[in-house]
Amino acid sequence: MKKARIEITGFTARFYDEIVLGGTAGLYQGMLKTVIAEMEIKPEDRILDLGAGTGKNACLMRANLSHKGNITAIEIGKEMMTQFKRKCGKYDNVVLSEQRIEEELPFENEFDKVLLSFVIHGFHQKLREVILKNAFKALKTDGKIFIFDWNEIHLKEQGPLFRLFMRTVECPEARDFIRQDLKKMLACTGFLDMKESFFARGKIRLLTARKAKGTLP
Fold this sequence. Notes:
Elements: H1 10-14, H2 16-23, H3 28-38, E1 46-50, H4 56-62, E2 70-75, H5 78-88, E3 94-98, E4 111-117, H6 125-138, E5 139-150, H7 160-168, H8 172-177, H9 182-189, E6 191-199, E7 204-211
């Protein structure tokens, strides 16, 4: 299977946070804070941040941790990693690892929470399944996955500006992702107790699920 080419580079990578904030009319910061609040992070939690980007998410999550808690952040983009190190490199309980999240990861029953923030939609369907299996394996029993991404959307029912955005700015994989049943994918991986929160008039969703067993089904 070919590797996904989802690394953000160049101007977009250097100003990623600013572009996202501007593209959401300033709403993204508030949405992200709400997502992190809904994660109910405990001071001693171990968190796996898959596709960690610039480190913005990790820095916000870290504010809820004590010295007993920690974040393992996985990223592959060189420019994003540079930004991550600049933002979070000074913290002893935040570790950045250069790995591909769509390949087998070395973690097993280690984490209380896994975050995927606007990452999984950029992969082909088969690779999304691998990523979810990686998350399941990495979580402790009763650990939770948090997927903050596009909701299931009928593109033809959306306004012209959003349709234009999805067809010209977003990747083709994203247009496939909004047609997929993510809850079914999670259930097939072994997750239970799914909960949803919606943003941006239902276009964006936080989907939460719990690891029910210690091994993959």
